[in-house]
Amino acid sequence: MKLYQGFTLGVTTLAAALLTAPAAVSAADLGITSDTIVRLYERDDSGGRQRSLLPVYEFLRLDYTAPKTPGLSLHAHGWGRLNLRDDFGNADGTADGELLYAYLDYLDPRNRDYQLRVGRQYIFEGLMRESVDGVYVKTDQVPSVTASAYAGLPVNLEDVKGRGGDWIYGARVAQGMPGRYDVALAYKHTGNHGSTDEQLLGADATLLLPANITLLGHATWNLVNGGFGEHSYELRLPFKALELRPFYQRYRYEDFLNRKSGGSAPFRYMSQFGEKVDIAGSEAFWYPAENIEFGARYKHYEYDKRYGSADMYTVLAAVRRKIFSEVGVEFGRVEGDIAQNRYYLGRSYVYWDMAPAYVTADVVYVNYDDGNVWSMYGKESAFFASVGAGRKFLDKALNVKVSLDYSQDPYFDKDYRGTLAASYAFGR
Amino acid sequence: MNKGLILIFLAAGLAVALLAACASTPAYRLPARHPQIYELGDRREFCTKCHGYKKTPVDFERYNHTPLFTESHRLVAYQDQRICALCHEQSFCNDCHVTHTELKPSVKNQTENYRRMQHRGEYLSRHRIDGRLDPTSCYRCHGNPQSSQTCRPCHG
């Protein structure tokens, strides 16, 4: 949605909320959060022109609870951007924005047995992880059974000339016994320009086994192609301060990636190769003390057609001090089948709280095994560093922060960026 | 698999669920929001720290935020996003799960470096390798036409 449309809708929504509210809206009824971000950096475009960029972003969120209608609330969130100096040099234009969500929410105030949402909203449930302009309902009225359904217009299929997507609808039914198991079935249908863009059937389950072991699983079946797009299974094995999480995943690109016009272009062609990948590995966590944690992950990839196997390793550690201060390190290795698909990664960071102020620092270094290829422009490494500081005012309602970034990588010789941000929470 | 078979399958599942439901005790209802405790929601926390390891009325251990929770939270989020909503507004999820944005999460929240965010640092070079080896991990956020606008300048 263009900036002016989003702004108009946002103002209208806010006006409607205020008009329906009592004359004196208390901070407990209305919450407004504003994040203003100003960035400063330079870019050389392909024509040799140097652009001086000063975009300012505004992220605005509104949460309003109707005081005379228990259970009823209004929520909205969107962003806008305005270039105060040069434009980016692409099709983004001088200004842009998006209304991310704006919906009315009604939660049964007595027993919370059912919930209804109307408007633009994100739905994360079962097979669904998208934004919809429509309706969402959920009910727990039948003991141990949760049923939900949604229908509307898929926001991601909106085209520049107006709404191009057709209907999206789906449902999920779950049944479970707390402390024992959860099983669910889900269905999702997306239409685009009158044809079926996506039709999925899914199942997810959690099973609590003896010795506090948990098994989680998720699978999707593509009804258009007739194949399993995804299998994901994870075991959780706790041993006091140590926990192991072995997992297995299998993807069939043809059934998992959407090759229709509703899918993203970079992934459409991949589904035509008939590729399958098996991923197996494990995560491990160790907490020797409440403020110290170690983590590790290993993933092994086996491809059916395109590549030889690949391995990914990650180890990290973090120490916290007095809850809010934290120092951490991470080391990673990606070992693809050929040198072009291999790199080492190292990161260290610190967040030091000196309430009401704080300072931050972050360093990321990547070394590519074979940077002498066209894709890396002959560079074998990438270095990124960031330092920042901030302070909270007005009883933590206002947070002002500044950060300076430096990057030297295959794309930029010496890239400096500055960011000034202010976050204000009214009604906090 | 035709639609008739799907409907039979779903109806059978629903019937089993109803039978089991009739035999069970009244269910627990989540509160609308978690009580405000210092910066809960801004800091990664372990639910078991306060709630212990009991499995009822909620399996709290399932929602412990491990150091790699950012990359492995989908299995629990798919099952009950109301648990996530106890502490996180939808705008929190929009840092990554969004139809259209220009700022990657680590840039939008540059000083929140204690959060494990995707694409921290210079990711343009790295994504070439990660995208070749595991495109399914990219697809979850960049897989539809709107959210792939970051990909379009190069990938069309």
From TrEMBL, chain A:
Residues 1-27 form the signal peptide. Keywords: Signal. It comes from the Bacteria. This is Outer membrane channel. The lineage of its organism: Bacteria, Pseudomonadati, Thermodesulfobacteriota, Desulfuromonadia, Geobacterales.
TrEMBL record, chain B:
This is Cytochrome C. InterPro entries: Multihaem_cyt_sf (IPR036280). The keyword Signal applies. The lineage of its organism: Bacteria, Pseudomonadati, Thermodesulfobacteriota, Desulfuromonadia, Geobacterales. It comes from Geobacter metallireducens. Residues 1-20 form the signal peptide. Keywords: Signal.
